[in-house]
Write a structure and sequence with these properties.
Length: 245
Amino acid sequence: MFTYPVLILFFLGITQAAHISTPVVPVCEGATLVYEYKGPIPEDKLRTGDHVHIISSEIDVGNPSTTFPNLLHVAIEKSSFKGDFQKFMTTIPSVTRLVLENNQVENFKIDNLNVLPNLEILGIKGQSVGNLNAGIFSKFVHLKELHLVSANIGAIDDMAFDHAEKLEVLDLSRNKLTSLSEKTLGPLKNLKHLMLNHNQLKALAAEHLPELPELERIDVEGNEITEVDLDNLKKKCPKLRVVRI
C-alpha cells in the first residue's frame, strides 16, 4: 500500500457537504485522508498534491480551461456530473489510477476515458457499462488492473482485450456473464488474477480458458459452478494455485 501524508480535495464547480468530516476509508488505495468540504476550494490547492478523493459531490463540468497535470491518483465516489464527462477527464491528463464508484453519469462510456492514455489502474463500480465491444481498451496500452464491478456487463467480444497485453488483474464481479470464451482472454498473457464472482456462469473448464502462463488465481464464487477440474486447468495455466468457488 502507498502512504501519503495529505490529500487535497478539488474540482471545477463542486458543491460539497456541509462540514469537514472525519476521514473515512478511501476507495483509492493510495489515498490516506478524505475530507468533505463546504464551498469552493482555492485554485492554488488544486495543484499541490498528486492524489484526490471526491465524495458526495455535484460536479458541474462547464467549459474547463484549467488542467491539473500533477494529479496521478483520482477517486470519485457517490457524486453526480452535469455537463460533458469527457471534458472533465481532460483536466486530469496524467492520471495513472482512476476509481469511479457509485456515481451518476448519464450516457457513460468507457470511450469517455480515452483522453487518459497513462492509465495503469481503472476501477468502475455501480456504473452501467454494458457489453464490452472489440477494441474497447485499445487506447489503454499501459493498463495493469481493470475492475468493472456491478457494471451491467452481459457479454464480451472476443477481441475486447486485444490491446490490453499488460493486464495483470481483471475483476468482472457482479455482472451478468453467462459464459466465457477461450478467445476473450487470449491476449492476456500477463494475467495473474481473474475475478468472476457473482455472475451467471454455469461451468469453468479448461476449454473456457486460453494458455495463461502467469495466472495464479481465479475467483468464481456466487456462480452456478459446483466443481472445477483443476488438473486440466493447470495444463494451460501452470502457475494456477487458487480457484475459489
